Amino acid sequence: MNTVLDIENISFGYTKDILLFDNFSLSLKAGEIKAIVGPSGVGKSTLFELILGHRKPLSGFIRSSSFSQVFQDPYSSFHPTYTVREQIKEVTSMEGYELLLEKMGLEEAFLDSLPHKLSGGQLQRCSILRALLMKPKLLLLDEPTSALDNLNQLDIMKLIVDNLEGMGVLLITHDGDLAAWCADEIVTLS
Ligand SMILES: Nc1ncnc2c1ncn2[C@@H]1O[C@H](COP(=O)(O)OP(=O)(O)OP(=O)(O)O)[C@@H](O)[C@H]1O
User: Fold this and answer.
1) Mean pLDDT over residues 163-179, rounded?
2) Using one digit for the tens of pLDDT, what is the confidence trace for 87-133?
3) Which residues cross the membrane (predicted)?
């Protein structure tokens, strides 16, 4: 299987004296889901910042395939003055969106709404729809289902699990049950 993310021996800290990562390695293959868990402040979001290239490791390297991401707060992922559809069209061809729309319990009308007219859960589904339509090799999920209730959380994660097709998923979550249910491996940061 293809490796879609390769993190080798990275070290990183925001200050010189406190290293959040010291020789940390992780690799992810297409078709795999790994969950990143650990207490608040341990560095889970920082790991994503490093993968996204917003931060540079002090040593070691990160190689990543094409990725898309879903963050905890869907309202910060969409521009407030353009419709959801306009923003999805900006980054994807929207090919095959109708089937996903139905599977995700979304309506066409949601796509033609401005983001703030939708509930947090509805907009988060749109954010996941956009991420999947981008057909990434690597999907980065940072607490993606925290805006959804328990039943919807499982439905949405099941949809992602069932549509892995050549994609690897890295999931940050505080939800141990969700991690245990969907992940091939749980990586605990400490
Ligand atoms: N821009 C920054 N400058 C300095 N320190 C930072 C910065 N961003 C985060 N930190 C610190 O780095 C540590 C890790 O933060 P990070 O957000 O990665 O943790 P986390 O595990 O994602 O936490 P949570 O579960 O609460 O979201 C924290 O101690 C945080 O205060």
Assistant:
1) 89
2) 999 999 999 899 999 988 899 999 999 999 998 888 988 999 999 99
3) none
| Domains in the chain: ranges and CATH | 1-66+137-189 (3.40.50.300), 83-135 (no CATH)
CA angle 182, 185, 190 (to 5 degrees): 115
String of b and e for 37-63 (b: at least 16 CB within 10 Å)? bbeeeebbebbbebbeeeeebeebebe
How many angstroms separate the alpha carbon of residue 152 from the centre of ligand 1? 28
Rounded to two decimals, the ipTM of the complex is: 0.96
Tokens for 179? Answer: 């991690």
